[in-house]
Amino acid sequence: MKKVNVALLQHACGTDVGKNLDRALALIASAARKGAQIICTQELFRSRYFCQTESYELFKLAEPVSEKSATVEALAKAARKHKVVVVASLFEKRAAGVYHNTSVVLDADGKYLGKYRKMHIPDDPQFYEKFYFAPGDLGYQVFRTKYADIGVLICWDQWYPEAARVTALMGAQIIFYPTAIGWLPEDKAEYGERQHSSWETIQRSHAIANGCYVAAVNRVGFEPNPAGKNGIEFWGQSFVADPYGRIAAKASVVKEEALVVPVDLDVINTKRVQWPFLRDRRIDSYGDILKRFADE
Questions:
Q1: Is 296 among the residues known to form the active site?
Q2: Under CATH, what is the fold of the domain 3-290?
Q3: How confident is the model over 63-82, as pLDDT tens digits?
Q4: Which residue from 39, 95, 125, 142 could staple onto 7, CB 3.0 to 4.6 Å apart?
């Protein structure tokens, strides 16, 4: 058996980006002490979820993302010190007027393996991401780390089976989804249960359809809207699903956690042999998937 311990860092965020980074670094250390080998942050962990409102001032939260940028260097130092792989979600300033929602991957020796830019960008009430982020242009990727071959997708990407499929076809054994999702207070009573159920179910289905592990990392706590209109109650419940879609472990709704979950990579081969979905794909019949809507 080839077992790997993955860790999902679930926590609340304040207004001080330095303190948020320090909190993530402390949780990385805590997860490493528990035996974690691959550690993933929640989406945009350095700040509160600023996309609740459209504000030019909030672009100041962005930073260049490269192996020489300050936050990446701090995370690389932690990866090297604890001998862990780190997946971290950042607000990238690529150039004046060009910003991305980006995740970096650092290997267990601190080496910068690259980055993924979020492909699917939402624009919904209090999730106004199109104002801030250009769509990703690096394509789907798999990172060959010391412990496993991993794919990274980000939040809204998790609703698209195409993204999970391509990432799995590229060799991902585990797909990580750094996430920031929760309830709008005015919607929770009527829609809350079905919203959360849908979110969890779609990701478990990706694990089943692709015969891989899926790890979703969400934040917790209530964050007020900077414009003074309600806010978002993040629902936590970070989880890992195995290739059969079973939830291997799940974090709480409200607590800060470094959830460490052992995964057996040999299960991937067993599942794919037993249920050979990838073998039986009719790739000659999927042309319409490239259309916006197959109405012609």
A1: no
A2: Nitrilase/N-carbamoyl-D-aminoacid amidohydrolase (3.60.110)
A3: 999 999 999 999 999 999 99
A4: 39
